[in-house]
């Protein structure tokens, strides 16, 4: 890069950082508005109110952290890119939670608050993603991504078909609360332990790289949604980001997670 280009690039980075700052300022105003609204309503007990207020704050502070991490990534330290993405996705989940919570009040004002928070966050999201796309190294076309990675006789990984990030692990081992060795599944939405004696059948399917059969196997033994990271229509695996996973809440309680693959196939991936 010539000195001139460098200066131009530094100028652009500064501009972006300030632009996001402005959007975050807007988000902060909406946050304050919602907190004020919650404080002013008497219908709710204090414990629930505190919880809901901490969700609004969490949404805001996760966005601020995403901004700080992006700032560092833009300075050239790309290991902060993933961190920034994680914070931003946390913020999006909390936004869904907050919206489900304030809907509790059937008031006209709530509709305005929801529109404001949706719009304000959407602006942040798109300006962040614009930068993420510029910063994300082009690994997709350069590197061949395997369908199934055999780590050992008793451990298999399924990488995301877009970025190669390991999205599913199946192995013999101990889950968090296991007393006995099990067949441990870890996907993009949850982990779960299955009976160890199922492993040989599963590993046979994984060896064949037959993801659709692995999916059916998981539907039978794991849960109705099968492999959470798998799009049956594409016959491909996607990570949380590339499945564009979205958490849904009902009155502040976890309801389910939807995934929409890059080809627009939408399905419930966790319930
Ligand atoms: Zn991915
Ligand atoms: Zn698909």
Describe what this molecule looks like in 3D:
This protein has 271 residues and is an alpha+beta fold. The chain folds into two domains: 3-136, de novo design (two linked rop proteins); 141-270, no CATH class. It contains seven helices and ten strands. The strands form three sheets. A five-stranded antiparallel sheet has the order 1-2-3-4-5, with helices on one face. Strand 8 (246-250) and strand 9 form a beta hairpin. Helix 1 runs antiparallel to helix 2, helix 2 packs parallel to helix 4 (108-135) and helix 3 (79-102) runs antiparallel to helix 4 (108-135). The model has no long low-confidence stretch (mean pLDDT 92).
CATH architecture of the largest domain: Up-down Bundle
| Largest beta sheet: strand ordering | 1-2-3-4-5
Quickly count the helices: 7
Helix content range of the residues, please? 40-55%
Order of helices and strands: HHHHHEEEEEHHEEEEE
E-strand count: 10
Low-confidence stretches: none
Oligomer state of the chains in this structure: single chain
The biggest beta sheet reads: 5 strands, antiparallel
CATH topology of the largest domain: de novo design (two linked rop proteins)
Any idea how many domains?
Answer: 2
Report the mean per-residue pLDDT as an integer: 92
Helix/strand/pairing category = alpha+beta
CATH C-level name of the largest domain? Mainly Alpha
Question: Secondary-structure map with pairings?
Answer:
Blueprint: H1 3-40, H2 46-74, H3 79-102, H4 108-135, H5 139-142, E1 149-152, E2 155-159, E3 166-173, E4 182-186, E5 191-194, H6 199-207, H7 211-221, E6 230-231, E7 236-237, E8 246-250, E9 253-260, E10 266-270
Antiparallel strand pairs: 1-2, 2-3, 3-4, 4-5, 6-7, 8-9, 9-10
Helix pairs in contact: 1-2, 1-4, 2-3, 2-4, 3-4
């Amino acid at each position: 890069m010539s000195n001139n280009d460098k200066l131009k690039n530094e100028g652009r980075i500064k501009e972006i950082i300030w632009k996001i700052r402005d959007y975050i300022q807007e988000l902060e105003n909406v946050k304050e508005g919602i907190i004020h609204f919650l404080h002013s309503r008497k219908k709710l007990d204090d414990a629930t109110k505190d919880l809901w207020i901490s969700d609004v704050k969490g949404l805001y502070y996760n966005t601020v952290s995403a901004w700080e991490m992006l700032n560092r990534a833009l300075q050239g330290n790309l290991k902060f890119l993933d961190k920034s993405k994680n914070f931003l996705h946390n913020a999006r989940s909390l936004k869904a939670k907050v919206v489900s919570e304030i809907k509790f009040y059937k008031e006209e004002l709530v509709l305005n608050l929801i529109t404001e928070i949706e719009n304000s966050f959407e602006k942040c999201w798109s300006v962040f993603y614009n930068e993420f796309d510029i910063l994300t190294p082009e690994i997709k076309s350069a590197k061949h991504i395997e369908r199934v990675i055999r780590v050992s006789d008793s451990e298999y990984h399924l990488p995301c078909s877009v970025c190669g990030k390991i999205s599913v692990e199946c192995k013999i081992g101990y889950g968090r609360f296991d007393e006995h060795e099990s067949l441990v599944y870890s996907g993009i939405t949850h982990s779960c332990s299955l009976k160890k004696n199922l492993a040989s059948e599963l590993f046979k399917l994984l060896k064949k790289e037959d993801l659709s059969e692995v999916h059916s196997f998981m539907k039978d033994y794991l849960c109705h949604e099968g492999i959470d990271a798998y799009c049956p229509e594409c016959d491909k695996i996607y990570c949380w980001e590339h499945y564009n996973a979205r958490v849904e809440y009902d009155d502040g309680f976890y309801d389910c997670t939807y995934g929409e693959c890059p080809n627009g196939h939408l399905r419930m991936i966790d319930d």
